[in-house]
Amino acid sequence: MSAEPDGPEDRLRRLTTIWSRALYPVASTSRTRAEFEEQLLPLARRLSELLSARSFDADAAKAVGAALVEAHCTDPEALSRTLDCVDAYLVLYCGGDGPQDELRMRSSRLQHAMAAGYAHALRGRTLAEQESIAQAALRAQGVVAQALHASEARFRAVFEGAAIGIGIADLDGHILQVNEALLRMFGLTQNALRGRRVQDWTHPEDAPQTWRLYDELVRGEREHYHLEKAFNRPDGTVLWTNLTVSLLRDADGRPQYQLALMEDTTERRLLNLRLRYEATHDALTGLPNRTLFFERLEKVLAAGDGQRFGLCYLDLDGFKTINDSLGHAAGDRLLVEVADRLQSCATAPGEMVARLGGDEFVALTTGPGTERAVDELAERIMNALVTPISIDGRDLLVRGSLGIVEGPAGERTAAEVLRSADITMYRAKSAGGNRAELADPEADARAITRHGLTTALPTALERGEFFIEYQPLVHLGDGSVRGAEALVRWLHPQHGVLGPDRFIPLAEHTGLIVPLGRWVLEESIRQARAWRERHGGQDAGPLRINVNLSPCQLSHPRLVQDTVEILESAGVTPDALCLEVTESALIGADDDLLKPLRRLAEMGVDIALDDFGTGYSNLANLRRLPVSVLKLDRSFTQGMQQFPADPVDLKIVEGIVTLAHSLDLAVTVEGVETGAQAEQLRVLGCDTAQGWYYARPGPPERLHDLALADATG
Length: 713
Fold this sequence. Notes:
Layout: H1 8-23, H2 33-52, H3 58-70, H4 76-94, H5 100-146, H6 152-161, E1 165-170, E2 175-178, H7 180-186, H8 190-193, H9 210-218, E3 224-232, E4 238-249, E5 255-264, H10 266-280, H11 290-303, E6 308-317, H12 319-326, H13 328-345, E7 352-357, E8 360-367, H14 370-384, E9 389-391, E10 394-396, E11 399-408, H15 414-430, E12 435-438, H16 441-462, E13 466-475, E14 481-492, E15 496-498, H17 500-510, H18 513-535, E16 544-549, H19 551-554, H20 559-570, E17 577-582, H21 583-586, H22 591-603, E18 606-612, E19 629-632, H23 647-662, E20 666-669, H24 675-684, E21 688-689, H25 700-712
Parallel strand pairs: 11-12, 14-16, 16-17, 17-18, 18-19, 19-20, 20-21
Antiparallel strand pairs: 1-2, 1-5, 3-4, 4-5, 6-8, 6-11, 7-8, 9-10, 13-14, 13-21, 14-15
Helix pairs in contact: 1-2, 1-4, 2-3, 2-5, 3-5, 4-5, 5-6, 5-10, 12-13, 13-14, 16-17, 18-20, 18-25
């Protein structure tokens, strides 16, 4: 018996086990590894919840990083191992079936926030330790200032043996003493430091409040302050420190000295910068990734004040073919070359290029004149792709489809702007590719509606939102109703009744056309049986039902079996059914594709060639197709609405009818709207017709009434 699949709790446990095995060797804990794993389990569960949360919670992710410090995971290797584990396994075990690109982007942001929380907590822990040392130093320095205290040796031990840098200066800023740790941090000697003034150590990246806090301290207005500060070393490198400065007072409480405690955070800062870079840049091309691009775009859109933006969304045409034929390594080298070319296109202030993933890139420009700037940027991008790219000795011609969005900041969110650019890019690709298109709000709205319909289709069939209307097929000779064409409709909760042109292409694209087509066939055959029973039974001759067959259904392996089962279940003979197949679907069809139709035709099911005359097929091919009916497209009869009728249209229709009858094919005409048309078609020899002249598509009761009227007429 097969094992049950892992549940969410099992996958969470597996993630926690991997995490604890990686972290335990560098954790300063007295717990066993099993106990340590139980300690990590709530943190892993919190990360899983944050990964799938509706909105991103940076503070909660920071709290997970801080919790690692509380768990005594303070070794420098602990953070690196944690982030590696989260990056490799969080989406795998906790992502479920969600969109992988969005989950990986959320995972990257979680890692960055965890690192920030870890660094902040570690800094707080260090500051607490520094305060303890500072208190000891303050007490000892009071003894130095009085020059009478008996514990000078203890102070010197704390001063010289401390792992952090300690320096003492007077209130004018002259440095009096420093310990060995501080000398090592700066790479200086005692003599080189003595006599220097604190005020000389300014740095371009000093926080705005740095020297204001210093002035307040030496004036006696504050007892201490701490902040992050950079110092220039003699060798030209930069020393980053967590700096705590405290005021030392004499026995009477008068300010006398200042005491500085410095922790070297250069390596930690470099680690944070590296983590930040890796979280915000594409590993393959080095370009900013989706996370950094969104941050930049959100900042631009929030600016307002007349700020404008222009965005180009690029997708390479035919990249999958290159990957499939030359391999992913060649595809990666191609992407790197494309990235370099795009980077050279965006060199002006306010311009940025990023890789969103796969072969999708974006370029952003900002400023007051983006209407012109974005067009120029798009032109540079398209020109950059003109020159072939050499990969493994092959010159590959790369083309791209570009969607352009331009407008004022403050009106749309970053997600809305990117969605508009994506829609516009696909519009360019649908138009043949290798071109740029400008965003159109109306086209965006249509695409969004189309997407909404696509996502709603699967549940619409389950909820019974589809229904069928029937348009009668009338015999032109005696005017009797011979059957009807089944036309499916969608009663959408928001958009009302939708015709097949709105959703059939979407159903074909998603594969839902197969179950939808089977449902239409079942309902239509059931209705055909009901008509037969109401119209006089089997001997009265059943009304024929015409059902459209899509190309996807035509190639489905169960077409014949499903049709037979539906007919037998309803107790309807095959001659009551006519399947309509468009001419374009049968152009160039091989024997394998025609075989199911031949089997159905042999059983007695009529096959109609729909929209005949629009597919440019060879008329000689009609002999090899298993069809019994030609349905002339309405374009042939439009010229007959006027009087006199277009003689060219008359000749064409007459020729087609003559050819069809010579091949023992019946002819049905669509789109009949006037009595003059109907009479002309009767004279030309057409067999049956349908159109608004007879009746619009409607409920099945209307067809029954029409057939009954014919029978009693």
